[in-house]
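Record pair follows.
FIRST:
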Amino acid sequence: KQWYQRRVAITAGQEIRTNSVIMSLNSPVIDRLTSELHQSSLEMDDFTAGAVNCFVDSIYTGDVGTLQKQIFEDVNKMSHVFEVSWLTKRCLKFYKSDVLNFTNNSYQEVLFACEIASRAHYNLKQTRYVTCFVKNLMSRDISRKMFLQRYMADFAELSKRQLEMSLSMARNDFSLIMVPLTSHLTMNLKCKNLDKNAMYLLEACDVQKFRQDHPDNFDDAANLLLEISEVSECDEVKEVVRKFVRPNSGTEASSSENVVDLVETTEECEDDDEDDSDDEDFPEVSTQTDVEPERGWIQAVYGNTYPLISDNTLQFITTDNEVQKYIGMWYNLVSEEGGRVGRWFGMRCENTTSSQWSYYIEGCTVCNYNVQFLNSVPRDKVKHWIINKTSTHLNIVCNKVTVLNFNFATDSDPDKTDGEHNWSREAESVYIEFNVKLLLIMQ
């Protein structure tokens, strides 16, 4: 697979140069565009400049520190369009923690969150936003009835998306819909006709449930609709009224598939906190690895020191097989008493055809390349390396294949007597030197 240095063109005359490897590792869509269609630029004029900057920054850092409410929808849409799975989860967490964090329960801030949820579901098929919005609405003791009356006040101008959002908020309680619907029929239509929005809601109603749960409200609605049917000359109106007033036994509502059944999906929203654990929030670096990275990929800098991630693990990516190109790691090791010692671990590609890599571990083996070799290193050009140092072993996995499991006590050269003692210490950080052309490291 070939990787390309690509430019991402954004609005307002700005342009961001990005590394195609980093972008492609996060987005299978961008991966296909660059590696299969050989695109070197992406036009993203549908999104604001601030949102594009935030999107790129998030991919580079593995964090959403620059995400704000004003650009949230664009960033969420980009994460969905470009299939950045970890970012879509982070956007949902941001929606729950920031967008739904109302300061005074004002109509405008509740409406802002409502419309975000509605568009996310209607345009992106992300049902959890609606579920979490309604759950939050009810937990804050915000009257759905009052909110729906205001939300549906301009009834004739409501879009299909807003009608479906109204039904989702009602949660199978059609009496909440009948209040603004009745007002529209009497005040605007003068009890003479049904417009398309009124017919849509009536056809979506679970009449049997409405009649059972609110018999008085149903009778009032039925009488009003019969009055309208008598004066209307439209056959479609008469048929809608007939089905509503005298539904056949067992007839189900013809509700749109875009209406969220909150009864069934509330548990899904409650499970979000478990689904959004850190183990799943970050980029799927490669389809060839079982271990999901926990932070974000950055381009390594020669001579820099990097902290280890969980369990003394170091993860990095090489993008080509380059003969006699090395990666050297100086482990800063700390004893229980606080004493520090440094030891080198190095690895180098010796043969690009067979993907043969040699290694050395200072204090345990001869400190030269081309003496000890890793086992069965995959021949893929792009390699995801996971190096895990424990108190007893140095373990290396490359693209799911364990290529080294070195036991400091039993695998060290006979003349190396202090290797086990030093390498058993906890690793604090790693200083890196390399001459491969591109090295990405997880931080």
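SECOND:
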Amino acid sequence: MSKKQRISSNPTEKVTLSLNERILRECHGLYADSDKGLVSMAKSVDLALLTPRNKITVLLIGNHSAGKSSFINWYVEEHVQKAGVAIETQGFTFVTSGKKRETLTGNATLHLYPHFKPLQRFEGVVEYLTTEISTSKQKKFSVITFIDTPGLVDGDMLYPFDVDKTIEWLGNMADLIFVFFDPIGQALCKRTLNIVEVLNRKHGDRLRFYLSKADTAGTETDRQRVMMQITQELCKRPGLNKTGFDMPTIYIPSMTSGKPVRCENQIEDVCKTVEKTIGQTIQNTLNSLEKDCQKIAEAVDEKLRKNAEDSSYNLKARGKGFVFGCFGLTLPLLVLVMWLMTLPVITKLIGSELTEMLKSYLMPFTDLWYTVPEDYKMRLLIAILVLSVILLYLSRWMTRLRDTMTRKQIKRLVEVQNYVTGHVKNKKEQLYQEYLTQSIGSTELS
């Protein structure tokens, strides 16, 4: 695993977590803990839960030199991405916040983000996969992972991997998808539009369109003409032809070379979009936490109910098996005892008094035996033996028991239920209170 250290603009390694970052991390910990995590507890009751990510993922796509890397550098307020890198050497770069400034290569990236391991299915991608870890805590970067993608071009340009399919797959994993159109470059790049059309079919609610480098579009008339061309090209695609289409104009303030710019810069709206998505993600995570706790509690109830039902079934089965077993053993035993009572040696062994008492008890069966003609006694004996075998078989068949839990297992399930309905739900309420306090204040919360 290759790693390369760099000097960071923010060398502080130990920083105070923002409230949003702490909430997402604590929710992630409630799921991922190896001993008392909801994922491991759910497995014990045959449920499969997904661990929520502790950061949102923002995917940036667009043509070559559309300003994706420059936007990331501006947001992070650190030069983590090289702007204007030749397309031949550009790949997929994850930009995230961490304790130390560092660069990770492909395999290390997949270890850091195990949920992105399916990228290995796309030949050549891992070799062009890197992660830039920055110590920056600017804006909401501590709860964001940016994914910078290769610049898209038309023509005979050959990528060392299937760039279209890879971006489409990453779009499935992203919480937001920013599409940057460059007014000077290839804003109408067909490859970009094709990918956007595919992403829009599945994740139209995640797509956001921006006219980047808007300050370079010339006069206001030129800028309106560019936006009109892009809008017309998008509207030619059936899936992208929808009402309420919006494409804010943005540019990096520090890259205007001090020249006065009349174009409205809506880059702060991008930040608001990110913040809104973070808020929605926190709410969804907390809501999912409560629902998953309820699922586990209900699954425990169902397991305990089924265990009680199986225990009751086993008790009845043992009773039925005992009855059939007694009958199966009693019949041949009676025949054997009646035959023994006819032997003189029995009287010598157990005494005449006990022998007479046994004979008196067996009198009804003895009288019934002597009413059977001699020619049929052997047949009756065989019938008794066959009936005994059948009854013993039925006894064994009746006593087939269902699997039940031990007391230790039952105790463990009850502990799981108490933990998720008590500790985890209380923790969720506490985190929700802290999250809402950011917006309305603690005095307004009941």
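COMMENT: Residues 267-341 form the longest helix (75 residues).
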